[in-house]
Amino acid sequence: MISRHPSAVIGSGLVASGFLLWMAWPFSTPPPFPANLGNVEVVARLTEVPTGAVFERELYHYATILKYEVITCARGKVLPGDIIYVAHYDPWKPRAAAADAKAPGIGGDVRAFVAGDRHHLALAVPLDDHYMGGLVDKYFGRRPALAYWALRTDAD
After folding, report:
1. 121/123 Cα distance (integer angstroms)
2. Per-residue DSSP letter, 137
3. 64: which residues sit within 8 A by CB, 6+ positions away?
């Protein structure tokens, strides 16, 4: 039996209207990850953010080295399970706001670096070919010489 009570009719109408609006709403898809950015593309888990590796200094621009465990590799000579070290420019800024004249082309949708998060990374090697500035490296002397430069960092 169909209820003819005004509140039931109004409630059903609101549910139906909401469903129709949801169906008609234009869903935006994020832009595709750039397949030609850098020479390495991986999805990796940020294993830790060492104390003192990320700090905000308004007049001091720097890159910090962070440690990742590779989950998948779309381009480059990196294998799942490999540990890689990645330099991120001005890591206290959201990736979409990190680029400047000293480090153009930095981007992504990651807003903060949190240990355990998975990132889709476009990387360039060697680091020295892409960045020659202040570097915070809490792994100095304990990591391989090869470090990657992060061009894009998206949440995965």
Report:
1. 6
2. -
3. 53, 54, 87, 88, 91, 135, 136, 137, 138
* Residue among 116, 69, 61, 59 nearest 88 (CA): 61
Residue ranges for the chain with pLDDT beneath 70: 1-31
* Cis ω before 94 (30° cut-off from 0): no
Q: Token pair for residue 105?
A: 């082309």
Joined together, the tokens standing for residue 71 give: 């989950």
If you search the block for the tokens 């390495």, which residue do you land on?
40
Q: Where are the domains of the chain?
A: 40-155
Residue 63 amino acid letter = A
pTM value is: 0.80
Q: In 3-state terms, what secondary structure has residue 98? A: coil
